[in-house]
Design goal:
The protein has 323 residues and is mostly helical. It is 75% helix and 2% strand. A two-stranded antiparallel sheet has the order 1-2.
């Protein structure tokens, strides 16, 4: 039987054995990472610099972009390092740190998506109370609660998982450290059941948030359909559909990964699903939110134009957004 003291490192999943394919995966992950950094970075900069976007809706979008960047930066760099240097290893401490940080960002993202749904619900169903229910203090408290919830859940899961004795080797069937794959290496029945109970508890919280999202959107769509103006209905739908698309992509892949029956589990399917919620979703979110959002596109265009013009006129000056 082995435990943390005798388990110096884990072996991550090798996506390919051939060197050419490993390098291809490196360049693919690099391109995805740069796209995620560019998209989320533009949203962060646009929301921070443009005072027209200093509203609750974009305040929460800014925090969502932070969680997307966090998810990408936690999992992808180590995988790229392994692809480039033809290795599979990650230290025990590095694996624990990756699990801890990734859970913070993942759970915070789910909480923020729930809060953003509440924001759309109040904006459409209770517009007269919007300023009261979503004032600056309330928004700050909700964002802080989302990050605190992520931290507490990570603090709950990580020590519980990495205190388990491991006797099934050190190879993980995943390109980054993830709790379900670490649990497969455990040989402690009681510890396994304890951590499984914590996962079920977290899943119940997520399902509760999911029910709230579904209930809110039922109320939102009922309110939108009562709007007499077609233009008004179109505007209301355009503010909700990007969020609904992000929630659907994120939750469908996450729930399928953690709640699917073992009978349909396979390494290739697990890999595809985990890539969807850990890499693809954070990369696509900025595109989904900016595709039909004219305010955000205008702010990004102003930001990019200001940066280029300032770089041309005074290369040593910091980039700014003219108002």
């Amino acid at each position: 039987m082995s435990n943390s003291s005798s388990m110096p490192q884990f072996l991550l999943l090798a996506l390919a054995d051939r060197r050419e394919l490993q390098l291809l995966h490196f360049w693919l992950f690099l391109a995805i990472s740069l796209a995620a950094l560019l998209g989320n970075g533009l949203i962060l900069s646009a929301v921070a610099c443009d005072h027209h976007l200093h509203t609750p809706r974009y305040f929460f979008l800014l925090h969502l972009s932070l969680t997307d960047l966090g998810c990408i930066c936690t999992t992808v760099p180590k995988a790229m390092h392994n692809f480039l240097w033809n290795t599979r290893t990650i230290t025990y401490t590095g694996c624990a740190a990756q699990v801890f940080v990734y859970i913070i960002f993942l759970r915070a993202e789910f909480s923020l998506l729930t809060i953003m749904c509440y924001d759309r619900y109040v904006a459409i169903c209770k517009p007269l109370h919007y300023g009261t229910l979503l004032g600056s203090r309330a928004c700050a408290h909700m964002a802080a609660a989302a990050w605190t919830a992520g931290f507490l859940i990570a603090l709950l899961h990580t020590p519980s998982t990495f205190s388990l004795p491991l006797c099934q080797g050190n190879a993980l069937d995943q390109f980054f450290c993830e709790i379900p794959h670490i649990l497969k290496l455990s040989c402690s029945h009681s510890g396994y059941l304890r951590e499984l109970g914590l996962i079920v508890f977290s899943a119940c919280l997520m399902i509760g948030c999911f029910i709230f999202i579904v209930f809110s959107y039922v109320q939102i769509f009922r309110a939108v359909l009562r709007i007499p103006s077609q233009q008004g209905r179109h505007k209301a739908f355009s503010t909700c559909l990007p969020h609904l698309a992000v929630v659907s992509l994120f939750l469908s892949t996450l729930f399928f990964s953690y709640l699917k029956p073992p009978s349909i589990s396979s390494p290739s399917l697990d890999l595809i699903v985990s890539l969807m919620y850990s890499v693809v979703s954070p990369t696509l979110n900025p595109l989904i939110y900016s595709l039909r959002n004219q305010e955000l596109k205008d702010a990004m265009r102003k930001l990019i134009t200001g940066c280029f013009s300032e770089a041309i006129n005074s290369p040593s000056s910091p980039c700014y957004v003219p108002h």
